[in-house]
Amino acid sequence: MDPFGRFLADLIPLFNDMPAWLAITITGLIAGTLLLVFMAVFALFAVYLERKVSAHMQDRLGPMEVGGWHGWAQTIADAVKLLAKEDLIPKNVDRILFKAAPMLVFGATTAAFGALPFSADLIPADMNIGLLYILAVSSLVVIGILMAGWSSNNKWSLYGAMRAAAQIVSYEIPIALSLLVAVVIVGSLNMSDLVRFQDGTIFDWIFLKYYGLGFIAFIIYFVASLAEVNRTPFDLPEAESELVAGFHTEYSGMRFAMFFLAEYANMFLVAAIATSVFLGGWLPPFPVLDFIPGAVWFVGKSLFLVFIQMWLRWTLPRLRVDQLMYTCWKVLTPFSFAVLMIVATLIII
Amino acid sequence: MEATEILFLIIAAITVISAAIVAFSNKIIYAAFSLLLTLFGFAALYVYLSADFIAVSQVMIYVGGILILILFGVLMTQRIYDVSVKSERNPVLPTLLTAIGSAVVLGLIIFKTPWRQVADSGYAPITERIGQAIMGDFLLPFEIASILLLAALIGSVFIARAEEKK
Amino acid sequence: MVEIAVIIALLPLLAFVIQIFFGKRLPRQGDWVSIGAIVSGFGLSLYLFIQMLTRYDPGFVITESFTWIDLGSFKINLGIYLDNVSITMLMVVTIVSSLVHIYSMAYMEGDPRYSRFYAYLSLFSFSMLGLIIWDNLFGIYMMWELVGLCSYLLIGFWFEKDSASNAAKKAFITNRIGDFGFLFGLLIVVTAIGSFTLTDIAEGVASGKLSGGWLTAAGILLFCGAIGKSAQFPLHVWLPDAMEGPTPVSALIHAATMVAAGVYLVARLFFMLSLDAMIFISYIGAFTAIFASIIAVTQNDIKRVLAYSTVSQLGYMIMALGAGSFTAGFFHLVTHAMFKAGLFLGSGSVIHAMHHAMHKLDVHDDPNDIRLMGGFKDKMPTTYRTFLIYTLALSGIPFFSGFLSKDAILGGTLAFAVSQSNPIHYLLPVFGFAAAILTAFYMFRLVILTFHGEPQRKDLYENIHESPKTITIPLSILAVLSIFIFYTLPGINPFSAAHGWFEHLMAAPASAVAQFSGHPVVDISEHTAHSSHTLAMIISIIVALSGILTAFAIYYWKKMDVEALTEKMGVLYRLSYNKFYVDEIYEATVVRGLLMWNNLLSWFDNAIIDGLVNLTAWITRHTSALSGKFDNAVIDGMVNEIADITQGFGRQLRRVQTGQIQTYIFAAVVGAVVIILVRLV
Amino acid sequence: MISLQTYLIISALVFIFGLIAVVNKKNAVGILMGVELILNSVNLNFIAFAKYVDLSIKGQIIAIFVIILAAAEAAVALAIVLNIYRYRSTIDVTTVDLMKN
Amino acid sequence: MPDLRTEVMEVNMGPQHPSTHGVLRVVLKTDGEIVLDAIPYIGYLHRCFEKHAENVTWQQVIPFTDRMDYLASMNNNFGYVVGVEKLMGIEVNERVERLRVITAELNRIASHLIALGTYGLDIGAFTPFLYAFREREMILDLFEEICGARLLYNFMWVGGVSHDAPDGWIQKVLDFCDYFSPKIKEYNDLLSFNKIFIERTANVGVLPADVAISYGCSGPTLRASGVDFDLRKNDPYSIYDKFDFNTVIGEGLKGTVGDCWDRYWVRIIEMEESVKIIRQAASDMPDGNVKEKIPKIVKVPAGEIYQRTETPRGELGYYIVSSGDKIPERIKVRSPAFCNLSVLPAISRGIMVADIVAIIGSLDIVLGEIDR
Amino acid sequence: MAQYFRNIYETIATVLIGMGVTFRHLFTKSVTLQYPREQRELPSGTRQKLFVNIDDCIGCLQCEKACPVSCITIETIKAEKDEDLGETSNGKKKRMYLTRFDIDMAKCCYCADCVFPCPTECIYMVPEFDFATYDRNDLVFRFSNLSDEKHKELIEREKAKEAAKQQPPEAN
After folding, report:
1. Domain extent at residue F136
2. I need a labelling partner for B15 at 20 to 30 A (CA). Which of A306, B98, C411, E298 fits?
């Protein structure tokens, strides 16, 4: 049984008496539900956070009305509004694909969440190739975006979709290479192995290892992951001043909400990968802080990275397509290659 | 019938049906997107065959790479004025003959061959073994494959780039 | 030890990488990177060299290797092989290379590709040093090709000049011909022995894995590489043309180091040369020596004279090695490297001065032409003095290094001739002495025409100035190194180096062939060697002096009229002046031959095939005319019917050939299905 | 119940669909998709054999190479298709018959 | 074999598009991301200013001029009143002139703030926009204090200004100058010298000086191309000749002279120059009645004049024809943004869609003035 | 090559500088006002809504003429000689009944051109700006304070006057 199953079995003794397949099904369902709830809650919180962060960085206040204290219920209200909105499908779209696209994007993101190690026990699916799995599944998002762009029957959307596809496919390379640095150091693709390897103090985390090379890999990963989730300065697929809103121009209501949620969930996803691969996952920076549960550390670190993503977004302008590709192919990829090679050499030596 | 078997049947059905859509759909874009389902189905089947590394590679390379390439191909070779792009077809007869002929042959092979079967070995992590094999016994093909990829990369860039006007 | 050798080789590589990527942006275009690399290489070599001297062990060898390519049963090892020969060679290469690097600072100043030049020089230094220290033929072959590449790049450095780029191409192609031989020899060796490593080959030959005709063939084929690289007779044509490159390059590559690589290779392979191979090598060398020196006599381009002189001297070395005088050949390599590099640098100094003078006067003429010089000795005293020292060394005048090595060679060949039963081998020393006299003659002709006598062009003469320090200092250093004393130590006998460190440390390696066959390849008794040396010494002094005297008589005292002399010599002069028409012969045979073969084929196509076709057409025409006269009604009907049938048939067939893959796939699948069905059912 | 034959049947079906796509479609990209189907069905066979017949990972490794090959093939084929489109403004393979006659 | 063909796609950018700065419609012919041609279509904001002007009295024209370049209303008023005063032969007193110069320069700063803020927005940086608006708000507060309105001021009247500066207003202006100067560094840190911003704008949309001149560009657009042409210097009106300031011209600091970054940079430096002018004008402000010369009924003697002034966008010219009536015979406006926009097709061939956005943003057009 | 590395360095450096700026602003006081609850103090001369102190209006129509967009509509009826309409606050005698004084704020362009010519300074702008309505007609503000009866009476009188004027004088 996987760790999460064991965790549940410890929690509820009934599990031990069930037939295995039933137990697996039930744990799966529970895990899935938990994940969905987490995603939704997180996305709502992230939207709220983004509004607040942007507002304060711009000397504004952001939402202050709904829910009383600093407008905390604003995003919930927005979500309810989006859910209640009329389901609008423009006239000349390809209806099947138009409807399928947000689901695919959302589904892919959720599926990728399944392998995240929230803590030593809380890993919905602890695969031995977890990292690879996450990378593979999250690359599905591109297909969804292409679907959305194509089916919208809108030239700007198509532009956005093409840009997104080209961008995400390209940036997968530096991402994979920089993650490989950690994989090479640890020697495993298993997410919890990756985290466990960094046990100890903050100085055992991979981003502080190998004479700063780990840090370079971390930075490369972080920058490339910004492109992977279409955040500034790589937000060309939805660049509002060029493409209006890119691939989701034609979407509204619930379908838009799904894209929106998936986008924020994706932000968390890439931050969580960075956390578990480079920043010690659920481990506290110093063993003294062990009393705080691992999941808190994990979510906290990820949220910090999400905050940095937002920080960057509200600071930086946007790149152009060719510069985007330049950054990927001529800066990030060579550097990640170099780091990988050096680290591999150091390990062999 | 166990739950896993039911799931297997569902996956197999999805795979085959979406493959059929790829073959028979008139809209090329539908074919492309149902190819996505087929590829996914295959990845799931690989999991059943305890080849999880291949399953993930399948998703990563086929879905994340080849399928996107194909989608690009579709998008770039259609005039983008209408979403419904029809793909015309050739005469049915030769197709039918091909299909039936190969079906007969494959059926005969599948059912008439006395397959030497070994007991199911169960699931075992395989990634490391694959890595060892590729870096050991299969090093030469691996290197050749990498050269092939490089050649394909350069070649396709060369072919696809717009020629300068003279 | 080994690490130091590797570092020596890798320093220039590092310099090359830095130069090629950042050269332009570094201060002073980064020349200090290259110079620093090679000078530190020189320092390290000096360290090795001093160690060698203190050790004073003729049998010193150190090897270290690792597996590079492991294909299971077949491994390619790479490694380092250090012995006295390679340490000395390292020393020679680094010293000449350092001096040339320094020299180039002034010579190449202001060139638009200054940093590129240094990058190439560094790359060359790396490959040359690598060539020296590899312990296996494969590595040597790699570096061999790399030096060839550098030579190509540097000859064609001023590729804007057609002549330079043509010369570069010529050098490259000519070298490739020789390298084919090398490659084939390599293949023979590796097939027979299964390893590239020198020690393995030695063992293999000693144990008889490679012997008899194959051994000879391998030796000769490997030597073919040396023919190309060291510009031996049939492939010597590229070297004089290579003088289109910058003069420092000529000094470094085409006088001191790369061309000596061929000699070095033969020296390295000395242990595996059978007698037949040695005789072949020896004759090639001897012929080249005399042949090139005849040409050198009549050339007017200062660098060409030196180039042919180089070819001739390389012939000497090859001849010595072929005649079994390993030490002598290698000795000459070392001494020659010093004074020939010096000669080239000196000529470069002259050319530099000429060039500046011409530039100043806005004269467009060939700065290399000795007919425009004359009397420069007052204007360029340092250049003149050093040049004179080199010339004396090259001419084989006692007290200079050249005398020692040349004498050793001539003695060696004489001894070889004596020891062989066939008296025809006396040709070797005869060729040697003839070449020696010519060498002395043309060198002094060069010195007299350049530095003595009346200035040929007053205007130029007035504007000639001594070159800057960066040019004269290398010249002086090389001149000092051309004095005998450096080679005879601890002995100080200026007439024999027999008791010097060189002869002691560079003893001929044990011949593996001899080990296998049980008797020495070349059997020269101590006595023969000694007596021939004494004889050779006397003859060579006489010969050299007579050559010098002739030169003075003709060109300085003008006892003989040059014009009249050339008239009298007639055919010989023209042959020499036109380099024995070798290029023209190649043009006429190889190039023309290929063209003619093409023409033949095209003629065959035009005349025979077309003729046949035309004939058929003619016959058809007439037949149809005939048939026209036939009864239309009958024939027409029949013909039309046949035509219709044919056409219909064709039309049906054409539908098979749709030009669409899908039809073909369909057909293929159907075929496959049928075949499998037949097999299955 | 899940046996080697099950996989072979699935693979055969997909193979046939791939073949149909290749033979029947006029659109070059469609044909390419058919080729991908065929390659995948072959892969399934390899992996199934590796599990049920051979008990080694050679089948899987061959499958990896097939995937690599497919990637290269897709890239080059699409480049060619794009070029054809650029010059002839169609990718209908029945009209691309420069080799005919 | 047929000619090389590429799929040309025609895309409408606007009239509803975030980065066309209003209701501009640009038809792009694109080949993928490459723009083959960009043709601006205008007229969505046409309000018949010139026809209006022929139907209202001389004084009533002023509110209409406000609405042409609604981001720099003061400067629009300025040109008109200067022209009419010249026709009438009115000399206004020093205090009026100084108030006019102060407000016009303040408005120039406000307009440039919008230009650079929205430019950041076009390039994708959201935050500088709000910072710029924060500062602009302060200028608007000052305007509200002096004339009561925040956007459309109707402040300069023929023969004077509508309101005198309230007590302490001049000090507030000086305080604002002190506050504003350090803010420019913040913009520079955040946007101007950001490498991504530079990459996006430097060497993009290079407008050579000769092209700029032949298209009749003016203002920062022209000066960024390296042409030293500023009406405040070259054809001084009001009392600009009394002040010491520099004409800012593009130097190609980060790329080529006349690229988008230069146009942006010229505006940044021009704000500093404006601050300089304001400080000079606001120090030792003379007393005087700001309304003493305002006629009850403006009657302009028959005649015509072409009065041009330097607005934040360039040379705004009023060609005023009077038949001696209470109502203008004809007013023709030479709109700087119109000329600036007309270079768009000339410099936007063969670039990327994103560059089009960068160029339009750097031209700093206001459709209210283009369409009038 | 050096340029390449310089570019990377500059990018990182300027991004960090920019991040520093935004980070500083994260902690500066925001300038936003929570509008309905907090309100900005408007300066004294602010031009918002037009207001007419109808008691002071003498019906001179100056403002109507000055309006460039004709948003002021005034109708007056001359008072009889004996009627005393009172005085304005600055001592001018009112001579007109204002049967209609409408300002269409939907049309108003807030230029304040009407304010200046007023001899009694009875039309001016007040600092009231949140007068949005759902119906455009609600934006027409009617300032005439005559009661309906008075209004009707005046109209009647005027009509009678008209009629009287049209009748030939000899009919009297």
Report:
1. 49-147
2. B98
Distance CA F124, CA F110 (A): 11
Query: Which CATH topology does D4-88 take?
Result: Helix Hairpins (1.10.287)
Question: Which residues 6+ apart lie within 8 Å of C381 measured at CB?
Answer: C466
Residues B65 and B141 in one domain: no
E121 closest CA partner among A309, A167, A239, A307: A239
CATH of the domain at F112: 3.30.70.3270
CB contact under 8 A, B97 and C666: yes
How many angstroms separate the CA of residue F136 from the nearest CA in chain A?
29
For the domain made up of E9-371, the CATH class stated in words is mainly alpha
Q: Please report residues of E whose CB lies closer than 8 A to that of F66.
A: 59-60
What gap in Å lies between CA A129 and CA B52, rounded to an integer? 8
Specify if B101 maps to a domain: no
- Residue range C233-283, pLDDT digits in tens: 878 888 888 888 888 888 888 877 888 888 888 888 888 888 888 888 888
What is the enclosing helix (H) or strand (E) of C414? helix C401-419
Residue F60 lies inside a defined structural domain of this protein: yes
Please indicate, yes or no, if residue B117 is contained in any of the structural domains.
Answer: no
The pLDDT value recorded for residue C93 is 87
With respect to residue B93, please indicate whether it lies within any of the assigned structural domains. Answer: no
Which pLDDT belongs to residue C469?
Answer: 81
- Of B28, B59, B86, the domain-final residue: B86
**Residue C21 to residue C24: CA distance in whole angstroms:** 8
One domain for residues B78 and B27: yes
Average pLDDT over chain B reads: 77
- How many other C-beta atoms can be found within 10 angstroms of the C-beta atom of residue C607? 10
Separation in Å, CA of C21 to nearest CA in chain F: 7
Q: B69 and B8 in one domain?
A: yes
Domain count, chain B: 2
Q: What secondary structure letter does DSSP report for F79?
A: P
Q: Which amino acid is at A39?
A: M
Q: Is residue F161 part of a domain?
A: no
Mean pLDDT of chain A: 81
Residue of D nearest to C664 (CA): D23
Q: Is the pLDDT of residue C681 over 60?
A: yes
Residue with tokens 């291949």: B54
Residue C454 has pLDDT above 80, yes or no: no
F65 vs D94, more confident: F65
Q: In whole angstroms, how far apart are CA F86 and each of A270, B164, F100, F152?
A: 80, 90, 18, 21
Nearest to E152 among F15, F20, F110 (CB): F110
pLDDT tens digits, one per residue of C183-226: 888 888 888 887 778 888 888 888 877 777 788 888 888 888 88
Annotated domain spans of chain A: 90-348
Residue at token pair 């000339």: E346
pTM: 0.63
Tell me how close the Cα of F38 comes to any Cα of chain E, in angstroms.
17
Q: Could you tell me the residue range of the domain that residue B3 belongs to? A: 1-86
Distance CA F74, CA C681 (A): 109
pLDDT value of residue B83: 42
Whether F58 maps to a domain, the answer reads yes
Q: CA angle C485-C489-C493, nearest 5°?
A: 65
Percent of all residues in chain C with a pLDDT value above 70, rounded to a whole number: 95
Q: Which residues of A touch B (CB under 8 A)?
A: 21, 25, 92-94, 96-97, 100, 127-129, 132-133, 135-137, 139-140, 142-143, 146-147, 150-151, 153, 155, 158, 162, 165, 169, 172, 189
* Domain end point (choices B38, B67, B86): B86
Q: Is F111 on the interface with E (CB under 8 A)?
A: yes
- Are residues A315 and F25, on separate chains, in Cβ contact within 8 Å? no
Q: Which residues of F touch C22 (CB under 8 A)?
A: 1-2
Q: Say yes or no for a CB contact (<8 Å) between B97 and C677.
A: no
pLDDT in tens, A215-224: 888 888 888 8
